[in-house]
Amino acid sequence: MRTTFMIDTAELKKVLARRWFDILLFAFLSVIGAVALALAARYILATDGTKARPLGQPIPVQALPASVQTLHEIVGASGTTAEITVANLTNRVVAKVVEVPVEVGMVVKQGQLLARLDDTLFESQLEYARTNHAHTSLQLQRMLAMQQKGFASAVEVEQARTADAAAQDQVVQAQFNLTNTQITSPAPAIVLLRNINPGEITTVGNQALLVGIIEPIYMVAQVAEEKISSVRIGMEAEVSTDGFPGVVFTGKVAKIDGSINDATRTFGVYISIPNHDLRLIPGITGYARLQNRRSALAVPSTAVIDPVGDRATVFVLEDGRAHARAIRRGLMADGQTEILDGLQEGEQVVTVGQLDLRDNDRVNLNHSGPWNK
């Protein structure tokens, strides 16, 4: 009997040892589970506003300060090249047309001959005027010398001076007329209209040719009406054309049309492009990219709430609470929205969690949420 009792005691000790280990393991796992559950609950409350509100906890949010930034926007628009201005070249003298070496559509350089008139008469007139001026000039000098000797009156000297001035005017007029027997291009241009032909007799004041100045040349881009606040004089632009695939031309906005096209709801933006090699001519279609850069007070666009589109709002943090505030916004670019009115630089604006907020809610500014990872 004693032997049996000793075996039972040993077995009992082994059983109790195993049970205490199980009890301790269970207690340890229970503590770990409770801690994990508490941490999970805390994480949920710190990151999920829908769970925090029913429990009366602060709404978790992420915020960033409103700051002055450089915003960069690309405004795209299709367009067509056009002459920068036109020059109406008229006949200045009556003469027979000898030569017209250009046709409509021809590109011409500055000073290039467009039409030549018979100059025989005008060369003769210039030669006569020069000879007459030489004579009157000599007469004036003679009268001045005679006046010094007392043989010519002041009236005679004045008459000689007047005759000399008139003769000089005749020389200038004759030179002017001779020059006008040749019609030349005032600048690099394209011939748009030709109303003069060899063999004709010209009439003073009648249009001879119409040319379009193409250095520089315009790209007239048709920009959408809603982008009117994004375009200004002097902004840089890049232009691609169908006529020169792969070539990018650069220029600047030189003029903005003040009217909106009723049919297309667009307005013309005139981009001045250097055209030294005269490759570009009017009528080439293309696409313009206007580079709009400016410094402005801005916040992340995700911070702006405007479901209807007529009242933009942000939530501003102050003393641990979120306050809804109406703003007036401007340019939206690079994920940022320009603030024209309603915010001051440095004010904290809710960028994450704002959809769960109501005005004057208590908030928890969470820096460990998933949006920071």
What does this structure look like?
This protein is an alpha+beta fold and 373 residues long. It folds into four domains: 1-47; 58-66 and 304-372, conserved putative lor/sdh protein from methanococcus maripaludis s2 fold, CATH 2.40.420; 74-84 and 214-295, Efflux pump adaptor protein, beta barrel domain (Elongation Factor Tu (Ef-tu), domain 3, Beta Barrel), CATH 2.40.30.170; 119-180, Helix hairpin bin (Helix Hairpins, Orthogonal Bundle). It has helices at 2-47, 49-52, 120-149, 154-179, and strands at 59-65, 67-82, 85-90, 97-99, 107-108, 113-117, 182-184, 189-194, 207-213, 217-224, 236-241, 248-256, 266-273, 285-300, 313-318, 321-326, 328-333, 336-341, 348-352, 361-365. The strands form four sheets. A six-stranded antiparallel beta barrel has the order 2-10-13-12-11-14. It has a five-stranded mixed sheet with strand order 15-16-20-1-19. Helix 3 packs antiparallel against helix 4 (154-179). The longest helix is centred in the first third of the chain and has 46 residues, at 2-47. The protein starts with a helix and ends in an 8-residue tail after the last strand. The model is unreliable at 1-7 and 369-373 (pLDDT under 50).
